[in-house]
Amino acid sequence: MSSKFAEILKDVGAGETAPPDYVIGLLAGDEISYVSSLASTEPEKSIFDMGSVTKIIVTTDLIMKAIEEGKLTLDTAVHEIFPDHNFRQVTIRQLLNHRSGLREWAPLYAYLESSDLVVDYICTHGFIYEPEKERRYSDFGFILLGKILEKLYAQSLDMLFSHKIARPLHLTQTSFGPLPSTLPIVPSSFGDRAEQEMVRTGKPYPVEEIAHSFDEWRTYTLAGEVNDGNSYHLLGGISGHAGLFSCAEDLMRYLAEILNSLRGEGFFDRVTLNNFLAESLDEQQALGFARYSIPCEGRTVEAYGHTGYPGVAIAFIPELDKGLVMLTNRLLVEGKPIETRRYLLALLQAQVSSQT
Fold it and tell me: How much is the pTM?
């Protein structure tokens, strides 16, 4: 069955610039299988840059734990945590469902000299939309959530993740970078090429003129350094929106724990997790988790997870007790890279169809 998924990955990229490397992990009940293009004898241990999957495994999970511990609620206002800043009535819930009114992205490293200025910048320059009016997927929101967690616990985000998530779940190869070169790391991209192009063109988001004077672009192949510019150039590789590295073996363990938790037998509180998955004003968004509606014999099956810009994704399908890990390095190509979401949806469709 796993070879079928390899063919799907190849077919999605047919005639375009497909990623040079991939590892796919499939979870069905207690059965785990992998398929990979890597020459390694243990591709499931190969480490990839997780990009925005950090928003789930680190930030959303830690927010759930903070709620379980009574540190905050979904309706906690941000100004309660940062009383010296005018965050209006923006809540944790709005940050998680991308309805806070914060802008999507900007090259903060071109505007700010220190990570200490990030919260103030987001407060004074980040709100450009009307809160609650519509979903605007925002890196700013998860950068802020990361800062909120650090303020709540008076501890750095990487240490919080290690103590509260990685160690209890035995995610032994999952951490923030930079990573030592002795580890089996899969290179992610040719330097900052993709982000440099975003700044140069102002697409998909316009940038301030000062951004064009930024001259610290990385030109070497990245391996063990986070691809995301704000995470690397400003936030020391540790942020609520990007910076995590992981392997398929750890991610499958994580997905199994999520599915166990939904049955009331796992690490996460069943009620809290169900609340995060159930609540949504948008068909593509739960709290923190992205939602994917997959057609199946005249109905739809709901999958939850997240994609990461370097070409990675995780997803789980509670109704079918299945999980999917997709790790690629789609940015390590000379041509235009294929959208991560296209790969994920094709693989999810195959996984749902294989149920029938």
Answer: 0.96
